[in-house]
Each structure stands twice: as structure tokens, then as C-alpha cells.
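User: Can you help me understand a structure? I only have the sequence.
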Amino acid sequence: GAVDSLLNVEKQMRLAGDVAGTKKAVIDIVELCYKACAWKTLNDQIVLLSKRRGQLKQAVTAMVQKAMQYIDDTPDIETRIELIKTLDNVSAGKVNDTSCWSLLLLSYLQNILVVSKYYSRITLKRLADLLCLSLQWYSLHDYFLVELVPVLKQTGSLSLFQEAEKHLSDMVVSKALVAKIDRPIGIVSFQTAKDSNDILNSWAVNIEKLLDLVEKSCHQIHKETMVHKAVLRA
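Assistant: Let's start by predicting it. Here is the structure, written out as C-alpha cells:
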């Protein structure tokens, strides 16, 4: 197939030490998988190419950077998380710092999606604890930011936080994530906004349950009272 042909080309370029040729071959392979919407094959090829004997660091970097462009195009959350995990695993020590930070930020955003499945509301402090982050507050765009590690300040990578804000906003807009942040009290809500009719119906059901419980309690009290009076008369 086409992938096998490109793998042969990649092998020839890699063994010849041709950096440009190897980079083009690995990029062509990931592009081919992406265009075919073969997400599992894409993950498999990324792992395979990264582990090939004598693989060039520049080729792995180019491959990861190219695949990162496809993250937002994944068809569902599970596929997106798998792609990010794959890139995270193969990139350790093999890609440049900027790509590492970008990938790390994306990983945290996907972890937020996982948290949102189990929490309806959560404090920013608790969210930071779950993500193993140190929470810091900045005035930049009046938005709370999370400091990944102190080196971000030293390297001037604060702009990555703006990228994180953009991805979060995109996730909310695309309905991949429902989130609302109450900055003054530091609460993140993952609940979907309820229609006024739904709220009223919910209240009506709860009131009905409450009245039913009160009625049963009254019957039980009356029953116990009658039993107690009967004992006294006896």
C-alpha cells in the first residue's frame, strides 16, 4: 500500500542520513493517515516511526509537530485523548521545548475534559490539585492561569497560557466542554445551563416528593401515637 511505499522511502532516507528526506517521508505518512481519517493507524505509525533504528531526532520533531495540527480535527474526545497520549509518549526527549510545552498544555486541557465528566462544580484549587498543578493568578486578559512549572516564567513562555485560554474557549464553543468560571469565588462549573421550564419541573417534582414524605411521616406519627395510647389504656 501507499504507507508501505512511504515507509520504504523513509528507511532509505534515514539510513542515508538525509534529514530533509526523512522529515518529508514521515510527514507524508502522517498526512496520508490523516486524510484517510485512519486515527488508529496514525497513532500506530507515529509510534513505529519514532522507534525505528537510528531514527533522526529532527524527523520525530517534524512528525510530532505535524500530528499536533490534527488534534483539533479528531472526531471525538476519546480519539483526541489517544492521539495526545501517543504524541506525549513519543516526544519525551525527542522534540524541542516549544513543542513540548504546547503538547503539555493540550494534555492538561484533555485532562480537564476527564474531570468534567465526574464533577459538576469544582474549586480552582481542587482542579489544580487533580491536575498536579500549582495555581497562580495573573491579570492577563482578566483570566486565571495555571503555572505549569517555574521555568515558564524564566523562558518567557507565558504566551502559551494565552494558547491554553484559546483552546479552552474553542472547546466550549464547539460544545466539547461545558464550563463556566466564577472568578471572584474561584469556582468552575461544568453543568449545562438549564431551561427555566426544566427548573420549574424539577422543583415541582421535588416538592411533590417532599409533600409525599411529609404525609407518610404524619401517618407514621399518628400510628405510633395510637399504639402508645393503647398501651397506656391497657
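Now, to help you interpret it: Residues 134-158 have pLDDT under 50 and may be disordered. The chain has three domains: 1-95, 107-193, 195-234. Let me know which part you'd like to focus on.
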